[in-house]
Amino acid sequence: MKSFGKLYLIPTTMGESDPMDVLPQTVRRTIEVIDHYIVENDKTARKSIKAVYPEKKQSELVLFTLNKRTETSEHNDFIKPLLEGKNMGLMSEAGCPGVADPGAAIVKLAHEKGIQVVPLVGPSSILLAMMASGMNGQSFTFNGYLPIDKDEKKSAIRHFEKLSYDKNQSQLFIETPYRNNKLIEDLLQILSPATHLCIAADITLPTEFIKTLKVADWKKLKVDLDKRPAIFIIHKM
User: Fold this and answer.
1) What's the gap between Cα 108 and its chain centre?
2) How far apart are CA 93 and CA 97, in angstroms?
3) Could you tell me which residue ranges the Tetrapyrrole methylase domain spans (predicted)?
4) Burial of 193 (0-12, 13-18, 19+ CB in 10 A)
5) Going by DSSP bridges, is the β-strand pair 7-10/88-91 parallel, antiparallel, or unpaired?
6) What's this model's pTM, rounded to 2 decimal places?
């Protein structure tokens, strides 16, 4: 019986930081021996690999690009090295692959083919924000991006606030970084003054900012998060 390779889920840093500050040695050892990767962004992946293991020869790397423009029909071609017995790495553009990331489709396919999936420890902005928020770590939901349409966004915010109250469940969501400041304005206008809001930006970076306050208290502050990756968490008690 032919043996398959293993699919390693390889985390990356979430910005310009020393990989060894946020990634365990397991990641370095894995990158040392793997040459085939499925990545979200070719340039970013090569930079990440070089940062973790500078001795790696870039010419030896075989990278398959997986993003929102990738056709599902290409996925089977991506995993051919696995079916041939070679180990492969799956890398997100930032953080952990498979979580809020297109790599989940490859992980699903690997399971369907009977390929072993090996997740490696690394930074997850969702979990790190939740850990630092002081909100309900026993019950929370990540909702991805809010709608772009103004009215739909307002309805979504109110819906998540009601869910947090009805289920005692913290609600997480993100926004395109250049829209962060507008989202903060919307949240402070729409949410109840007593609702708790956590804003976590630049997680694991030197410019990290994480703060949880009631909406009424946020209104007394001026925060500029323009073009800074951020996660927002709300919870109405």
Assistant:
1) 17
2) 8
3) 27-215
4) exposed
5) parallel
6) 0.91
User: Residue ranges of the domains in the chain?
Assistant: 7-119, 125-235
DSSP for residue 56:
S
- Strands (E) across 103-149 are located at 117-119, 140-145
The angle formed by the CA atoms of residues 218, 221 and 226, to the nearest 5 degrees, is: 95
- Between CA 221 and CA 183 the distance in angstroms is 15
What letter would DSSP give residue 12?
B
H or E stretch covering 150? helix 150-167
The candidate with the shortest Cα–Cα distance to 23, out of 98, 90, 94, is 94
Evaluate whether 7-119 and 125-235 have a shared fold: no
Instruction: Quote the DSSP letter at residue 103.
Output: T
Which phi-psi region, left, alpha or beta, contains residue 85 (left: φ > 0; alpha: ψ -120 to 50)? Answer: left
pLDDT digit of tens for each residue in the chain (237 aa)? 579 999 999 999 998 888 989 999 999 999 999 999 999 999 999 999 999 999 999 999 999 999 888 999 999 999 999 999 999 999 998 899 999 889 999 999 999 999 999 999 999 999 999 999 999 999 999 999 999 999 999 999 999 999 999 999 999 999 999 999 999 999 999 999 999 999 999 999 999 999 999 999 999 999 999 999 999 999 999
- What is the fold of 7-119? Cobalt-precorrin-4 Transmethylase; domain 1 (3.40.1010)
Distance CA 138, CA 169 (A): 8
Q: Which residues sit opposite 210 in a β-bridge?
A: 200
CATH, range 125-235: 3.30.950.10
